[in-house]
Amino acid sequence: AQAAKQTLIAGRPTFHSTLELSIGADGALMAEVTAAPTRTIFDAQNTEKLPGLIVRREDDEPVDDVSVNEAFDGLGATFQLLLDAFGRDSLDGAGAALNATVHYGENYDNAFWDGSRMVFGDGDGEVFTGFTRSISVIGHELGHGVIQSSAGLVYQGQSGALNESIADVLGVLTEQHLLGQTADQATWLVGAGIFTDAVQGRALRSMIEPGTAYDDDELGRDPQPAHMRDYVNTTEDNGGVHINSGIPNRAFALAAKAIGGHAWEGAGLVWYRALTGGLSSTAGFTEFAEQTIAAAASIGDSVETAVRDAWIAVGVIE
Ligand code: ASN
Ligand code: ZN
């Protein structure tokens, strides 16, 4: 119903949404809009030209290209998480279309959000297989779209690491929601299954044990810190945004496990409310921690304690 309200207020339910009318117990007419995604998958045909050719639209059957179908399904899984858990209709809360390009570049070893769409490389086949293979990676890239249209966290230093961390949160929640996992059942890995067998590693990152996702002869060791005492001061990667995200990542995983049950209903909702409740675009770890504690307090004492303890455990607050 919350999603319905948002859709109605926004005044632009998408074509794929359905409107249901019913009479309530008090005789009042009730309208419920069930939002649905509007996905388009493009193929860059191994060039770096965006967006590429349209290869699958919302109402099309699966096509003869696994990457296309994986991207399509991953976009759908992310849409469902946002709607079911947070009542958010797509990335912007107003039914924005979801666009993704696959087969970007040649042997391209990454996936990214370019400000308006997700873009996925095929990987080089030596270190990485395709980037559409992981639901948490797809949810991560779409997460950048949610962050962009809410707090707009500046991609530099601590606000940048928060941007990365919240994208990881939305990525793993998408996967946990799709699989119906509780916080205790979840792997807390981002990007499991995208390394080739040649790599000594499980995933790109571990939220519960940052720094342990891989330890490979060629790639080296996962550089993520799990505590403020190991915060990495660097000018690389916008101030280590993919490295220092390990600290808030661990806080989230600890809070989720302490609260128990489905993470998107507990810690996930708290993080989402902090993100969308007036967080400043330059927020650092401490400001975000305070916002999550305030959001948790409005749910209940035990949730507040779990969230506060998690931030203390990673050294962000005392
Ligand atoms: N996969 C990376 C990310 O989404 C790409 C990047 O560094 N922008 O964070
Ligand atoms: Zn990212």
UniProtKB/TrEMBL annotation:
<keyword id="KW-0645">Protease</keyword>
<dbReference type="Pfam" id="PF02868">
    <property type="entry name" value="Peptidase_M4_C"/>
</dbReference>
<dbReference type="InterPro" id="IPR013856">
    <property type="entry name" value="Peptidase_M4_domain"/>
</dbReference>
<keyword id="KW-0482">Metalloprotease</keyword>
<feature type="domain" description="Peptidase M4">
    <location>
        <begin position="50"/>
        <end position="148"/>
    </location>
</feature>
<comment type="similarity">
    <text>Belongs to the peptidase M4 family.</text>
</comment>
<dbReference type="Pfam" id="PF01447">
    <property type="entry name" value="Peptidase_M4"/>
</dbReference>
<keyword id="KW-0378">Hydrolase</keyword>
<keyword id="KW-0479">Metal-binding</keyword>
<keyword id="KW-0862">Zinc</keyword>
<keyword id="KW-0964">Secreted</keyword>
<feature type="domain" description="Peptidase M4 C-terminal">
    <location>
        <begin position="151"/>
        <end position="316"/>
    </location>
</feature>
<dbReference type="GO" id="GO:0008237">
    <property type="term" value="F:metallopeptidase activity"/>
</dbReference>
<dbReference type="InterPro" id="IPR052759">
    <property type="entry name" value="Metalloprotease_M4"/>
</dbReference>
<dbReference type="InterPro" id="IPR023612">
    <property type="entry name" value="Peptidase_M4"/>
</dbReference>
<comment type="function">
    <text>Extracellular zinc metalloprotease.</text>
</comment>
<dbReference type="InterPro" id="IPR001570">
    <property type="entry name" value="Peptidase_M4_C_domain"/>
</dbReference>
<dbReference type="InterPro" id="IPR027268">
    <property type="entry name" value="Peptidase_M4/M1_CTD_sf"/>
</dbReference>
<protein>
    <recommendedName>
        <fullName>Neutral metalloproteinase</fullName>
        <ecNumber>3.4.24.-</ecNumber>
    </recommendedName>
</protein>
